[in-house]
Amino acid sequence: MGEITTIGLDIAKSVFQAHGADASGSVVLRKKLSRGRLLAFFASQPPCLVAIEACAGSHHWGRELARLGHTVRLIPPAYVKPFVKRQKNDETDAEAICEAAQRPTMRFVAVKSAEQQASGVVFRARDLLVRQRTQIFNAIRGHLAEYGHVAPKGVCYVERLIAEIESDESELPAVARVSLQALVDLLPKLEEQIAGLDREIARRAKEDATARRLTTIPGVGPITATALVALAPPAEAFRCGRDFSAWLGLTPVQRSSGGKQKLGQVSKMGERTLRRLLVIGASAVIKQALIRGAPAGSWLAQMLARKPRMLVAVALANKMARVVWALLVRGGVYRTPALAA
C-alpha cells in the first residue's frame, strides 16, 4: 500500500466521506467522518492534495484544511460528474472527486478568503432586496389592474397606484386596501436597506485600487467594478480574455462536429450576477451612443448599423469582459482606442 498523495473529500452537513489514493491512483483509504472528527483526522495525515467539490461550505473547509498544511483544490461539480461510476452515493462521489483531481488537465476553483466571501454577500443581499422590491411593485400593479387601475411600465409610475391605495376617496374595497397598504408599508424599509448597501458598495469602490481602475472602462460603474473584484476568480486563472468571457457565459455555445463549426446563443454559464451587470452596463453605453451618436467608423457604430440592439449589447459586454481581464492581468487603466484615419 503506497503513501496517500490525494484525498477526495465529499462534504455534507453532518457526514463526510474521504477517499485516499497513492501516486498511481490505487485506493489507499476509504473513511466516513463526522463533522466533529474531520479536522482531527486531517491533522493526523501528512500534507497531501485534498480535492473538494465546489459547493456550499467548500471554501470554508478549504481554508481550514489549508491551515493544516494540505494543498486544497476545489473542482466544479460538472467536472466531477463524468467520473462517477454507476450508482451515486457518498463513497462513489468521493472516489470521483479523487480521480478528477488527478487529471493533469483538470480545472480548479480558487479558494476564496473570508473577506472575499463577505464582499460577495453584499451583492447577494442587495440582489435579494431588489427582487423583493420588484415583487411588491408587480403585486401592486397586478392587484390594482383587477379593479381597473393601470399605470405605464416603470418604477416611477407605481406612485400613481400607491396614491390610489392611500387615497381616502379610493373606491377599492376596504379589505383590499388594508392588504395592499401592508405591501406599500414594506417599500420604504426596502429602499432604506438597498440604499445602505449601495453606500457600502460605493465605499468599497473608492477604497479598492483595482475597482477604481475598472471604473475607467465605459459601462463599468462602482457596483460592477466591486462585484468583479469580489465575485470573479483571480484573472491569472484564465489563459486569455476570451476564457474569462466564456466563464461569464458571454460566448456562443459550440455544437461543432466533423470539421463544421456550429455556434449557438451565448452559453449563460459562470457567474450570472457579473454577466447581468456587464450587459446592463453595455446597454447604457449603447443608449448614450444612440443619443449622442457613436464615433463614425467605430466598432460600435458599425454593429448598431447592421445588428439588433440586444445582440450588440451582449457583444459589447463580451468586449468589456475581455478589457476587464486585460486590466486585471496587466494593470493600468482603460484607454479609448484611436480610430483609423
State the distance separating the first and last CA atoms.
71 Å
User: What is the tally of helical segments?
Assistant: 13
Residues in helices, as a percent range: 40-55%
Largest sheet: 5 strands, mixed
Structure classification: alpha/beta
Q: In terms of per-residue confidence, which ranges show pLDDT below 50 for 5 or more consecutive residues?
A: none
Radius of gyration using CA atoms only: 26 Å
String of helices and strands: EEEHEHEHHHHHHHHEEHHH
Summed over residues and divided by their number, the pLDDT gives a mean of 91
Domains, number:
3
Categorize the overall geometry.
globular
Descriptive notes:
The protein has 341 residues and is of the alpha/beta class. It folds into 3 domains: 6-101, 2-Layer Sandwich (Nucleotidyltransferase, domain 5); 114-207; 211-330, no CATH class. Helix content is 54%, strand content 11%. It contains 13 helices and 7 strands. The strands form 2 sheets. Strands 3-2-1-4-5 form a 5-stranded mixed sheet. A two-stranded antiparallel sheet has the order 6-7. Strand 6 and strand 7 (263-266) form a beta hairpin. Helix 9 packs antiparallel against helix 11 (272-292) and helix 11 (272-292) crosses helix 13 (309-330). The protein starts with 5 loop residues before the first strand and ends in an 11-residue tail after the last helix. The mean pLDDT is 91.
